[in-house]
Amino acid sequence: METVMAHPFAKYLREAMMPHIWCSGCGNGIILNCFVQAVDELQMDLNKLVVVSGIGCIGRAAGYVNTNSFHTTHGRPIAFATGIKLANPELEVVIISGDGDLFAIGGNHFIHAARRNIGIKVICANNFNYGMTGGQQGPTTPVEALTTTTPYGNIEHPFNLVHLAAASGATYVARWTTLHVRRLTQSIKKLLQKEGFGFIEVVSPCPEIFGRYNKMRTGLEMMEWFRKVSAIENFSDPAKAEITPERIVVGEFVDIAKISYEKLIHEKIAEINEKKMQW
Amino acid sequence: MPVRLWRKPLDAEKVKLPKAEIHILKNQCKGCGFCIQFCPKKVLEESEEINARGVHPPKVVDESKCIICSFCTSVCPDFAIFIVEKPCKEGC
Ligand SMILES: Cc1ncc(C[n+]2csc(CCOP(=O)(O)OP(=O)(O)O)c2C)c(N)n1
Ligand code: SF4
Ligand SMILES: [Mg+2]
Question: What is the pLDDT of residues A228-275, one digit of tens each?
Fold first, then answer.
């Protein structure tokens, strides 16, 4: 059928940047798709939305969304986002970035932003490796997985990202795979409405540079792996949600309320100013 | 057989099932096959033609089987497929 109608989400994308660079079968496009769908369903004011990314394949996301956006340096999207949020708490600041960017070079930013409960929202595309630079092993690579830098099998233990986020104090923590598009979209909607620091890990296929060394040459094979091994267990113990080839526990892990850092800092500033007036 | 399967709903005459109109932006497709594989009604299949990116985009096998769950719309990494409900004058 010949189409004349535009895609319903086309207005959320920068036309000049399309097509995106992501490989066939890559999950990054699905994450972008679910994100713009959540923004659409919430009817968000695009002038008040800022998308921040670091460097990596998924880091291109900031350049693709038709909102205010910031493509920052490797590992530093949280630092930039913190600045934006504290300068203007009215803005909804969302980070879309990679597992390497957020948890290797940017690991400290992540745990401290969660601890301080800065009201920024982090969506992490976990593809188990550094996709953009050629598939090196990273802090989420599963034990025994083959990558370009672990040709005999990885001997390092990976981070369990949802456990890390929960232990660091995040007020919302969830994990989905790119196959759970409905739940992921609903979860992003929830994330965007939280006051404090929130985190969603999206387990995502990278067939081109991770799957190919691990007996999953196509995105379809990686998605079939997710279908086979993922189990939805809402509010289960994140400490027990380690990702293994046999099991990927998905669901919401944490959903609590806690006053955000930007509220406290602006309250504190007002309080100090008031005291000064009385002198 | 469960009751809901053999009993014809009383309002069956009045209630019209929505009809889908499937839009495929062929040249945006990178041929990952997610929409074809994960459509619960198997409405799509790989076509013979080769698009601008050198892959086989999906084609519609039977539009009337589509239940407008829009899973394909959400799972497409390339924003290359979407479903709209047919306006009533054509659909019902
Ligand atoms: C300071 C600095 N160090 C290293 C790099 C090289 N580099 C670019 S992207 C990347 C890793 C990206 O991995 P990830 O964040 O998981 O994103 P993916 O490509 O997997 O989506 C690295 C190490 C860089 N650009 N800047
Ligand atoms: S290398 Fe991997 S993460 Fe990067 S675009 Fe290709 S499939 Fe996606
Ligand atoms: Mg990565």
Answer: 999 999 999 999 999 999 999 999 999 999 999 999 999 999 999 999
How many folded domains does chain A comprise? Answer: 1
Does A3 reside within a domain?
Answer: no
The token pair that represents A78 in the structure block: 């949280």
Amino acid in the structure at residue A256: I
Residues of chain A with C-beta less than 8 angstroms from the C-beta of B78: 19-20, 29
Choose one of A32, A55, A60 to mutate for the ligand 1 pocket test, by most ligand atoms within 8 angstroms of C-beta. Answer: A55
Look at residue B64 and tell me if it is in a domain.
Answer: yes
DSSP one-letter code for B28? G
pLDDT tens-digit map of A47-83: 999 999 999 999 999 999 999 999 999 999 999 999 9
Which residues lie near ion ligand 3 (Cβ < 5 Å)?
A: A 98-100, 127, 131
CATH of the domain at B60: 3.30.70.20
- Which of B34, B60, B84 faces A219 most closely, judged by CB atoms? B34
Q: How many CB atoms lie within 10 A of CB A196?
A: 23
Q: Which chain B residue has its CA at the smallest distance from A223's CA?
A: B34
Atom number of ligand 1 nearest to Cα A101: 15
How many residue contacts between A and B have a Cβ separation below 8 Å? 80
CA of A265 to the centre of ligand 2 (A): 39
A61 touches A132 (CB < 8 A): no
Whole-angstrom distance, CA of residue A227 vs CA of residue A82:
36
Q: Which residue of A has its CA nearest to B25?
A: A3
Query: Is residue B37 a part of any domain in this protein?
Result: yes
- CATH number of the domain at A126, please: 3.40.50.970
The 3 state secondary structure assigned to A74-138 is: CCCHHHHHHHHHHHCCCCEEEEEEEHHHHHHHCHHHHHHHHHHCCCCEEEEEECCCECCCCCECC
Position B57 in a domain: yes
Of A111, A5, A104, which is closest to residue A54 (Cα–Cα)?
Answer: A104
A9 touches chain B (CB under 8 A): yes
Structural domain boundaries enclosing B46: 29-85
| Closest chain B CA to residue A20 | B78
Residue B59 lies in a domain: yes
